[in-house]
Amino acid sequence: MKITIVGGGPGGLYFSILMKRQDPSHEITVYERNAEGSTYGWGVTYWAALLDKLRAGDPESAEAIAAASVTWTDGVAIVRDERTVHRGDAGFGIGRRRMLALLADRARELGVRVEHEHPVNGPDAPELAGADLVVAADGVNSQLREARPERFGTEVTSGRNRYVWLGTTKVFDSFSFAFKETEHGWIWCYAYGFSGEQSTCVVECGPETWSGLGLDQLNADDSLRLLEKLFADLLDGEPLIGREQHGDGAPAQWLNFRTLTTRSWHDGNTVLLGDAAHTTHYSIGAGTTLALEDALGLAAALRTHGTDLPRALTAYGRRRRAELVPAQSAAHYSAQWYENLPRYMHLPPHRMFALLGQRHSPLLPHIPPQLYYRLDRAAGSLEPLRRLKRWLGPKVAKAAHRG
After folding, report:
1. pTM, whole model, 2 decimals?
2. How many whole angstroms separate alpha carbon 96 and alpha carbon 32?
């Protein structure tokens, strides 16, 4: 097949690798609008289960990614000025630039043509002429999808809170949170390492806090200085770094997260992958993982159904939409937890942190936080109560949704 992939993110590059491994005779080109080495996103997170899947798909790139990653097991939270620690499963971080470079090198090694600084402007672009399969891996603002949103059934909803992606020279050895109460409300930060030199910091707050602190008016440098003061105990005096200092030339942007869903993942020979098809709130740290799993799913469908492209693309969309339901549910409740943060901040820090870990639960929004905490502790040792909790959550959530 002649395969054209629009978008050189992790999902698009990994799909090119998988297809070249399946059949080296495939003619595959990846078009990326940005310059090589220019990316926004700092570090990405993933967990051990993804590495196992990547090793099955392409051991060489999986080992390269594992070797370039840092790891942590603990979660640390600073609530007001009190620090609490939670033991958890191993997590991994890797710089987005580093991951893209490793995947691009592996793709080229296998014979994929990777073209940077080469935008593809819509479904009628000459780069797509003659392609048997067009993969739209061009992100949440996908031009290929937006050219025919009614065919893909695109829906977008915006979250209430404001957030900004930043970096720091403080190297975190745990996944860290800081929650600060100001006269204008709460503001908080998630931080995690992705190399031996830098970490990612995501700062979030409600719109009242954002405007009350003047973050809607301050320039990029003054915003960074204010945030450094607010999170001084988390950063240990290290500076925050904005996008323009990161090398892509753009100032830091405060955004509202957009949750995107699509009813159909393909139209003719064009198929969606990654953020072009779906987004999940950044607080569950799954965006890159889901894009790579899309690549694995699409490659598997094409391997199973061979030259029957309509059947392969239909099977891929149906299976991945079903597999995404748990992640989308977790992302919805996680975003909701943060949008209702004051509900939980009267708890002692260790209890608040415990409920932070339970924020994916559909039951939590409907039970007083102190009662939920006690229920969760009891469920940890009583299997009948654990089963009741799992059964009751979706029932309560569905009833609340109908109401």
Report:
1. 0.92
2. 15
